[in-house]
Write a structure and sequence with these properties.
With 199 residues, the protein is mostly helical. 66% of the residues lie in helices and 2% in strands. The protein has a two-stranded antiparallel ribbon with strand order 1-2. It starts with a helix and ends with a helix.
Length: 199
C-alpha cells in the first residue's frame, strides 16, 4: 500500500454495500472479505487516528499498524455471522479497545513503575484536573461499569474507542438515539467522578 493511498481522505461513512459484502463473507466468500477490507479501510483508519490522537504523544502504535492488527483479528473471526455494517463496526471498536489496552499493558510491564499511559478524555468530560488518565485505569473502570450497566459500558466503547456517532451507536444496539444520549451522559458523569477520585 503506497503513501498516497494511506493519506487519501475516506468518505465519512462506508458505502451501503458493506452489509452485502459482510453477508457474502459470512457465507465463505474470501473475495468479498478482501473487497470489504478495501472498502472499510479508510473508516477504520479514521477510527484509529482518532483514538491514537487521544493518547500521549510519541505513541509507538501508528494508525496503519493499528488498522492492520484490527484487520488480522477480524479475519480470524471466521465463525462470526455478521448481521450488518453496524455489527461489524461495533466489533471493530471492541477489537481496537482490546489492542490498545493490550499494548498499554505490555508497555507498563516493560517500564515497571514508569507506566502511566495517559489519554485525553475530552469526550468523557473535563478530567484535565485529574492529571491525565491511564488507559488501563479507564479499561478497568469500563469493566466495572459493564457489571453495573452493560449497555452504558458498550456505549462508551462504541463512542470513545470506535468513534461512532449517537445514531450509529443506536443502530448497533438497536435502541433509540435519545436512550443512547441519556446513557452516554450518565456513563460520562460516572467515569468522570471515578477518574477524578475523592475531592
Amino acid at each position: 500500500m503506497d503513501s498516497s493511498e494511506v493519506d487519501k481522505a475516506p468518505d465519512p461513512r462506508p458505502p451501503a454495500d458493506v452489509t452485502d459484502l459482510l453477508l457474502a463473507w459470512g457465507e465463505g466468500d474470501a473475495a468479498a472479505r478482501d473487497r470489504l477490507m478495501g472498502v472499510v479501510h479508510g473508516h477504520l483508519r479514521d477510527q484509529a487516528r482518532g483514538q491514537l490522537a487521544r493518547e500521549r504523544s510519541g505513541h509507538t502504535l501508528q494508525p496503519t499498524a493499528l488498522v492492520n492488527e484490527v484487520y488480522l483479528r477480524l479475519v480470524d473471526r471466521r465463525r462470526v455471522q455478521w448481521r450488518n455494517r453496524a455489527h461489524f463496526f461495533g466489533f471493530a471498536a471492541q477489537t481496537m479497545r482490546r489492542i490498545l489496552v493490550d499494548h498499554a499493558r505490555g508497555k507498563n510491564a516493560q517500564k515497571r513503575g514508569d507506566g502511566v499511559i495517559p489519554v485525553a478524555l475530552e469526550d468523557l468530560g473535563d478530567v484535565a484536573a485529574a492529571g491525565g488518565v491511564d488507559l488501563i485505569a479507564l479499561d478497568d473502570l469500563l469493566e466495572e461499569l459493564a457489571r453495573r450497566s452493560p449497555r452504558q459500558a458498550r456505549i462508551v466503547e462504541l463512542r470513545y474507542f470506535g468513534g461512532l456517532t449517537i445514531g450509529e451507536t443506536a443502530e448497533i444496539l438497536e435502541i433509540s438515539e435519545s436512550l443512547v444520549s441519556a446513557d452516554w451522559a450518565l456513563a460520562r458523569s460516572w467515569l468522570y467522578r471515578e477518574l477524578r477520585g475523592p475531592s
